[in-house]
Amino acid sequence: MNLKKHRQTIITYLEPFGAMDFTQGKLTKSEWDGMEVPDSHEEQEVYELIKQGFHNVNIVRNSTQTLLQYMKISPSDEMHAHMYELYFKTHVDQMQEAFQLHDFKTDTDKKKLVKKADLIRIQNTNSNLDEQKTKIYEFVLLGLLLNLLNNKFPHMYSYWRDYLQGVSERKRKRAPPMPDAVPSRPKWMYFHYSICLLRRNSIEHINPHVESFLNYVIALVENDFESASFVSKAHEHVEKNEYVFKCGDMKLYEHQKQIFTVFKTDATPKLVLYIAPTGTGKTLTPIGLSEHYRVIFVCAARHVGLALAKACISAKKRIAFAFGCGSVDNIRLHYYSAKDVIRDRRTGGIRKVDNSVGDNVEIMISDIKSYKHAMYYMNAFNPLNRLLLYWDEPTITMDYAEHEFHALIKENWTENIVPNVVLSSATLPQQADMAPTIMDFQARFAGAQVHSIVSHDCQKTISLVNKDGYVQLPHLMFKEYDKMRASAAHCRKYKTLLRYFDLREVVRFISHVNEKKLWTSGRYAVERHFSDIADINMTNIKEYYLELLENVQADKWGELYAHFQDSRTRMHPSNVNITSKDAHTLTCGPTLFLANDVEKIARFAMQIAEIPECVMDDLMKIIDHNNEIKDEMEKLEREIEDKMEEGNNNDKDEKAKDKKNNKKMDDMRFSPEVRRLQEKMDELRRQVKWGALNDMFVPNRAEHLKRWAPHMTKEDIEATKPFTSQVEPEDVERIMVLPIENIWKVLLMMGVGVMTEQSNSNKTYTEIMKDLAQKQRLYLIIASTDYIYGTNYQFCHGYLGKDLSDISQEKIIQALGRIGRNKLQQEYSIRFRDDAHILKIFQESATAKPEVVNMARLFSS
Q1: pTM over 0.85
Q2: How many structural domains are present in the chain?
Q3: Where in the sequence is the domain holding 413, given as residue range(s)?
């Protein structure tokens, strides 16, 4: 066995992480190992919900616990009465006294025959109860109720405060906490809204006496609720509502319900056009579909397939892989899927899998190159009507006039024999634009049904910011009335754009139009649109905004447009000093900067960091020293390899070589000569100098913020959470000896990763970058637009460079989809260096979209 040749083979199959993550090669050992790391308990709960959701699309789960659930006690009328008297009555009585609610009565006069085992359980959990009160459902509701009453009846606040001062310490300790300081009067509606939505959740065994008091108070105040006033504060009261999201139900997305319903039977062939925003679970949908079908999941972006594989393993789904296959013999089964295996006699562990037996495979994960082999393999063990091709992101490379994948895509579609197909993408062309593909499918599969599933699930706001730092929306962009209405119609057609409507600006527009009554008819008034409190959510508010745009008085538009131009405020700085004075605006998570000339942006980021020459000189001396060490280590490594191969070269019998190879390798590894060289290698490693940048030059470290954002107080920093990198000393040590240009080393010390052909030519650098990005430890990644297809990493902010002149509308939306895949209730933004790109989003394309043209050409036989 030739070690150098073997080493090169491993490198060949390493996954490039950057500009083109479309490798059609076999899986590496690190990729296999990475899939075996189990996902969190919360993620596994999601997978289980999706599996069960295929059989019951209305499934609902809620992990919020009531007091009985927390204590693990069976419910009964007697137990509810006992728990109310023991834990809740004091809270209710105190609120009744403080806010003069003497009309409320509840009957707990029941014999409290409580089992001794339950009494012991109550005593055992009492000690930790105070710590858990913020999570237990009844206490959350009572806390909200107290805040509602305090804000609804602010004149009672001092009474409540004085009451608490007058009672004993024991009673004060058991009382509900002091409510928030009295804000503006409409704040009570925030708590009323929160309670009303929480009451609709699927939480079992809530204490009926607490619920009775809740209903009593809600009935007192609900007629005073003003939808117009509440909607005007929607950014705070709806989008940032921590209670609704914290205790919310877990259920399927609407698009998942639709696709599961479509595939409940396999009587006829089906083509499903599956359009839903990024980050809403499309890639996990095959886990549910595999409950009934054998799924072949195909995606050009390797990373996406590996992410699904990891989820499948955590979900206990049996999977196989077709990556870089030249034939079906190259298909590999995961251990869960193996039917015929050879086990170790001593340990019982699997030593060898027969990959030719695929009876158990539920999901085959394939790249573009290997699809046909995966298809024939799966068909060998399953009837065609039980197979389903799930083609993820078929629009990848469709923005190019020519691409090496195009021939593969055409061949796969033409030779496909699977009669059930899902084309899944946030930017898939609409059904009307896919007539050639649809007609071709129906011609090849008799009786085929075509289903279009279009979703616009929207639970967050990702603001689009122009080059001058202002948020952009249709009413802020189009001075001409007709162009504004055309943009509104375009957004209504592509409702996935709703997530990019800044909610602050949306409600400002809604409030002004309603206040001045600038709609064409009173039926467009906000009160008429939101007649039920449950109708007030982010999606409905943004849809109402579009309705107002289409029905605002034409003769008032010029005045309205001028008003908002004059009153708008800058959201973010207009420049792009991402490593200096603008860094503090990049909050909560990493940032992605997309550009054609990646190297230019990287050098600019280095330049504006203003690292003093003396600091750079010292750093360069360390790097130069380490480069010399690195050269010496490479020479030694080659010597060691040569020594270890010497014994093999004299053996003419290749089979004998292979049999004896492992033993010879062990013998050579411990030979005096090799041992001496290895000791010398260790000595060189000890001479590597560790270098690090001062925190003053690492974006958003404390010293950096003092230098570039001196106006920020400690409270400002805690509130906005400027994001910084976490590149550890051991990472720096690995980086320092890499054979890459020095600028990439310095940038990585700053927490900036760069995806260029030059930087990605070094596989070790690529692996370090991949690991740091996966763990959210980089502050900024600078990459080309093709990088978007290879990552599901969580970015909170993004930049689109001004050199992306040829980028298509669909690819912009794909780029936008990389941002905001993280938690709810964080600040997200996408900052455009060229306003023409925002116009592309909010206007119907005047020419045929390249994705539409290419799909019509390639997805047709």
Answers
A1: no
A2: 5
A3: 252-454
